[in-house]
UniProtKB/TrEMBL annotation:
Record keyword RNA-binding present: no
Biological source species: Brucella ovis (strain ATCC 25840 / 63/290 / NCTC 10512)
Domain D-isomer specific 2-hydroxyacid dehydrogenase NAD-binding: from-to ranges: 78-252
Family listed: Belongs to the D-isomer specific 2-hydroxyacid dehydrogenase family.
Pfam families: 2-Hacid_dh, 2-Hacid_dh_C
UniProt GO cellular component terms: cytosol
Source taxon at top rank: Bacteria
UniProt entry keywords in alphabetical sequence: NAD, NADP, Oxidoreductase
Taxonomic path: Bacteria, Pseudomonadati, Pseudomonadota, Alphaproteobacteria, Hyphomicrobiales
InterPro entries, alphabetized: D-isomer_2-hydroxyacid_DH, D-isomer_2_OHA_DH_cat_dom, D-isomer_DH_NAD-bd, NAD(P)-bd_dom_sf
GO molecular function: glyoxylate reductase (NADPH) activity; hydroxypyruvate reductase [NAD(P)H] activity; NAD binding
Official protein name in the record: D-isomer specific 2-hydroxyacid dehydrogenase family protein
Length: 294
């Protein structure tokens, strides 16, 4: 299902639906409307658009696509960071407009990656892959999670605000959901400071976009690079108008190779479920779901 709407659910065929491969919202109402549904294969590692808790309570398996997109998204994150700091996209536009050679040089970028301190909000699979890449630049790394990770030596901060106050580059890799909605607010942005750079490749809902637009406008932070937005594909006009942003249309994992691997994992989960009654990559809310065969 590509849209997640329920317009066709009055049809007789809904009773025959046992599996869904989805790229969008799967609500509790949709789950309830499919009486024989067994599994939802979510196309993506983030599954906040799927009511996984309701699915699990109704013995419906939910799977996602971890690992296969980790390195691609981490690569995109670094590219977005460098572009945001060094203004590479703007420099290319300058060249394409024919400005180079008119006795005009492109202005020096005000920011540099050199000497930055990087904070990561969400040190899961992708967050750790981003951190490995940041290490190659010789930059110090700190992080905030719900709890301290046992397998990393990076400095841990118990709150996002404290992390923001300790760094000047904040990379968001956190999942969506009630716990992280608008976690990056005015206070966090103020803590990040006037040299601060915000990068978001996690979920748009994690950022208070109105507060971010204001922070970019008044110099509370220096710049932002965003691959995700709260109400996609809508992008707030204030962010579009901000000259100190780099904005991407949610392309973190969008290469042919990676998207094919993601699609293969969705299909493999569906096949495994119907062949063996087990899933390859179940989400935590549904690990206890058991197949019921007539």
């Amino acid at each position: 299902m590509a849209r997640g709407d329920t317009a066709l659910l009055g049809s007789d065929w809904v009773k025959d639906v046992k599996g869904i491969a989805s790229m969008s919202k799967v609500s509790a109402d949709l789950i309830d409307a499919l009486p024989n549904l067994e599994i939802i294969g979510n196309f993506g590692v983030g599954y906040d658009a799927v009511d996984a808790r309701h699915a699990g309570a109704n013995n419906v398996m939910v799977t996602n696509t971890p690992d296969v997109l980790t390195e691609e998204v981490a690569d995109t994150t670094i590219g977005l960071l460098i572009d945001t700091v060094r203004e590479l996209s703007k420099a290319q536009e300058f060249l394409r407009r024919g400005e180079w050679g008119k006795q005009v040089r492109y202005p020096l970028s005000k920011l540099s990656l050199r000497g930055r301190k990087v904070g990561i909000f969400g040190l899961g699979r992708i967050g750790k892959a981003v951190a490995r890449r940041i290490e190659a630049f010789g930059l110090p790394i700190a992080y905030h999670n719900r709890r301290k990770a046992a397998d990393v030596a990076y400095d841990y901060y118990p709150s996002l605000k404290k992390l923001a106050g300790a760094v000047d580059t904040l990379i968001l890799v956190a999942p969506g959901g009630a716990e992280t909605t608008r976690a990056v607010n005015t206070e966090v942005l103020q803590a990040l400071g006037p040299e601060g750079v915000l990068i978001n490749i996690g979920r748009g809902s994690v950022v208070d976009e109105e507060a971010l637009a204001q922070a970019l406008k008044d110099g509370t932070i220096a710049a932002a690079g965003l691959d995700v937005f709260a109400n996609e594909p809508h992008v707030p006009q204030a962010l579009l108008d901000a000259p100190n942003t780099v904005l991407l249309p949610h392309i973190g994992s969008a290469s042919v190779k990676t998207r094919r691997a993601m699609a293969d994992l969705v299909v493999d989960n569906l096949i495994a479920w119907f062949d063996t009654g087990t899933a390859i990559t179940p989400v935590p809310e549904t690990v206890g779901v058991k197949a019921v065969r007539q």
